[in-house]
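Format notes (please read before filing issues)

Several people have asked whether sequences and structure tokens are stored in separate files. They are not. Every record keeps both together, in the order shown below: the sequence lines, then the token lines. Line labels are part of the format and must not be stripped during preprocessing.
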Amino acid sequence: MTSIDDTLSEIRWLRNEIWRCRRLLGTKLPGAQREAVEKRLQEKLSAFDRLMSTAFPLTLSSKVYSFKSTTIDSPEAPIENAAMASSGCLEKSISG
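Then the structure lines:
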């Protein structure tokens, strides 16, 4: 069985990989490299979604609020919310 520390570490690693892919896509890449990075981004997003659903199976509502008022429909929402949860900001935002 994987510990919560290992799971959170993997979540952070996937989040960083997703950010790295998005940064790369913001640069001028040749067609083949861009396609490879887009494919890798999709793989990392899928892995991130699977890991988040197994690590945190509880769904509270259809909208998730953060400091930026990001909704669940935003492509950035799962990443930002995972960052908040792993850094302890979620507790602070809930408790006031």
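For reference, the curators noted about this record: The chain is about 70% helix and 0% strand. The two ends are 34 Å apart (CA to CA).
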